[in-house]
Amino acid sequence: MIETTAKAGNREKDYELLIKQLAALTEGETDKIAILSNASALLNQFLTEVNWVGFYLWKEDELVLGPFQGLPACIRIPYGKGVCGTAVKTSKTQRIADVHQFPGHIACDSASNSEIVVPVFVNDEIYGVLDIDSPNINRFDEVDEVYLEKFVRTLEKYL
């Protein structure tokens, strides 16, 4: 079983602590770029076996690269294209065990083999997506999905 956190303790409790850290970091802050920057840095520090953590923001009917941790990435992603565009189109989290099996996958980093993308909403409108890539096949499981969605729901309160 893949250990999600550096501490390798109880994953659910570790995720709950992460969410509390996010709230503490963002409380009282109004600058959205600063909030998203700290959120991506926090996730990058918390998660193991990932090679990219960041946000794409919905602007003028496409996703545009936002704050992230990792190698340079694709700047624009069209609606419905790739895993990120599909998450926007479906308004649902996309947990992809092997991105090479995903029709229309956009390969920004050839080292990425699995991906999870969580849509971000503000006032019930798409705001963007949280995108996390891993060099490992099948890196993300149901626990990751549930708690990354909770992380995003907390983040949305500050955007």
TrEMBL record:
Keywords: Kinase, Transferase. It holds the Pfam family GAF. Belongs to the free Met sulfoxide reductase family. Residues 47-156 form the GAF domain. It comes from the Bacteria. One of its GO terms (cellular component) is cytosol. One of its GO terms (molecular function) is L-methionine-(R)-S-oxide reductase activity. SUPFAM superfamilies: GAF domain-like. The keyword tRNA-binding does not apply. This is Histidine kinase.
